[in-house]
TrEMBL record:
Reaction equation(s) it catalyzes: ATP + protein L-histidine = ADP + protein N-phospho-L-histidine
Alphabetized GO MF terms: ATP binding; phosphorelay sensor kinase activity; protein dimerization activity
Protein name in the entry: histidine kinase
Keyword Transmembrane carried by entry: yes
Native source organism of the sequence: Actinoplanes siamensis
InterPro entries reported in the protein's UniProt record: HATPase_C_sf, Put_sensor_dom, Sensor_HK_TwoCompSys, Sig_transdc_His_kin_sub3_dim/P
Transmembrane feature ranges: 12-32, 38-58, 108-131, 137-158, 165-185
EC number: 2.7.13.3
Domain Putative sensor: 19-197
Amino acid sequence: MDSRDWIRDGLRAVLGGLIAIPLAALNLPLFVLSVATLILGVVPGLGMVLFPLVTQLVRARADLARRIAAGSGVAIARPYRTAPERAVLGGWRHYRWVLTDPATWRDLAWLVPGAVAGVTLGVLILAIPLYGLEGVLLIPLWIWLGTGWYGYGAIWPFSTVGDAFLSLPQGALILSIGVAGAPYLRRCGALFDRLLLAPTRNAELRLRVSQLTVTRADTVDAQAAELRRIERDLHDGAQVRLVSLGMTIGLAEEMVEADPAGARKLLAEARETSTAALADLRHLVRGIHPPVLAERGLDGAVRALALALPIPITVETALPGRLDTPVESAAYFAVAEALANTTRHSFARTARVELWHTGSTLVMQVSDDGLGGADPAGGTGLRGIERRLAAFDGTMSLSSPPGGPTVVTMELPCASFSPKTTPSSGTG
């Protein structure tokens, strides 16, 4: 890691520790409010309104903790059950939904320990670098100005100016340790939060079933749309040409004896029509499963795709072999759609595709130097990529600040490769 990277990450973690202290302290009034409104539940109507309201605040605070944990590399999924239909705030159905959700009680159980851990780690994250900074900046100045007795680090008290200036290397060491260790302390806090804020095993299974239900519906819709596209392309393209071909050949048969020259002309037209029909069918097949993908694998297919696009695209791959055909096809079309977005919407001058395998996941990253500002909700095909990957339990993440660059990272679970290797490797 570059020295600037660990300094930047450390300073960011120190700032996070500063923010973590008041956020953690906020847990305590939320806990008191939750207990108070829960007790007020015995009052008809009042508790049924207040407790769900306070629970929403608690969940917002827990969601904030989850987002902060994600910044430390610790993913914490939301475990909450879906609200029942026709559930209205203040109504019995809504109150029972909040009350019977196990995640409600896990959030409450987290508030006080989370406050203690958050404040403790936040103080440590701040105190160590500040103490190091004190040794670097303040102690020599104080001694130089003649402030008298003082001590720092391993020297208590200072007896000479030399002792005072020995605080400089000690302070630099403590400051470095504090900045370098701050991200790890932040991660410890995130791991602690995950103990109670993450879904239980049953909640994970319930969320998984819900996700698979949505994914299955999206996959079925996508397949139906693809079948309609194929049917439309066949009906409007190849089928029309083949019908015309049959009619032309029939006319040629009738004219072959009476007008041989006209028959030859019709046969020439028939040959052109058959060539166009074949091109339509090849284009249709290419949209279903490109021949280059079957012949050369994902590596070669992506390189061929990059060469066909109007901007320079660098391709780097580190794939040990061939993937299963369905996964390979999904990966290819996901990369193709991402590159299509780049050429159509980003106004990029160059782009880059990187493919690698982490041991259990195929990672595809498409980046460009365009204008940025890409949004999956903007109808630029990113939703289609998400749906295609979701059918294989894959994910997509997007980084596209205004002004660029745009980086689309796609991941597909892929435990193994076949021993057959692709013809091309390295960089392009």
